[in-house]
Specification:
mainly alpha; 8 helices; transmembrane helix; transmembrane; EC 3.4.-.-; metallopeptidase activity
């Protein structure tokens, strides 16, 4: 049991640590980051309950619509809502890179609990594949979401609302593409590999841009 729990939790913590350590200009308060992780973990249960009820009731029978509403849409919306409601106006959200960290933290909280429940149900055999795909993809969706939250928070013009909208719909679309690829039985592997490479490229580009925004922000604040 200990090995299984460790295998379920380790990928999420490793990815969160990676994005945390990428920030070399300022140290984000660990307590707030942990809170975002915990909030992301807590929303796993209501999301899974709603998904279960809708599936059992046969409310949505079309697989594509199910991917949009039950997975991509619902999961990304709840993660977005957590950040917007509890973190976006937080006093410690004080530089553009913070959004990226809180986005990753919230998404990885959700992904870690989801991964733990999956491995408890189906065993440790799929631990590596789940770390490589579902857990990392949630992290990357969160990075993209958080990047746009950071852009919105510190926008100096009327684009704050536009970035806020992008923070929801860009990760939602990416999640939809990810889920759609998994429905192609037989050759999904040949599609998911290039998509994951693209997702990593996109997320790391957002990390680089967020870091540059942070440098610009600190210069304006006369902190460097």
């Amino acid at each position: 049991m200990f090995i299984l729990v460790t295998a379920a939790i380790a990928p999420g913590l490793a990815l969160l640590s990676y994005f945390y350590l990428r920030n070399q200009m300022a140290t984000e308060p660990r307590r707030t980051l942990i809170q975002s992780f915990i909030l992301g973990a807590l929303i796993t249960f209501p999301i899974m309950f709603i998904q279960y009820v809708l599936k059992e009731e046969g409310t949505i029978t079309n697989q594509f619509v199910s991917n949009v509403l039950l997975s991509s849409g619902m999961e990304e919306f709840f993660k977005w809502l957590i950040i917007f409601s509890f973190i976006y106006r937080h006093v410690e959200f004080d530089d553009p890179y913070d959004g990226l960290l809180y986005g990753a933290g919230t998404s990885l909280g959700f992904a870690t609990v989801e991964n733990l429940l999956y491995l408890l149900s189906f065993g440790i055999d799929s631990a590596f594949l789940r770390a490589l795909l579902p857990v990392s993809s949630h992290a990357l969706f969160g990075v993209v979401m958080g990047y746009y939250f950071g852009k919105s928070k510190f926008a100096k013009n009327d684009k704050a609302v536009e970035y806020l909208i992008l923070s929801l719909f860009v990760p939602m679309i990416l999640h939809l593409v990810y889920n759609s690829i998994l429905t192609f039985k037989g050759f999904w592997i040949s599609l998911i590999a290039p998509f994951m490479f693209y997702l990593w490229w996109l997320a790391l580009r957002k990390v680089k841009l967020a870091h540059q925004h942070l440098v610009d922000h600190l210069i304006e604040q006369n902190k460097i």
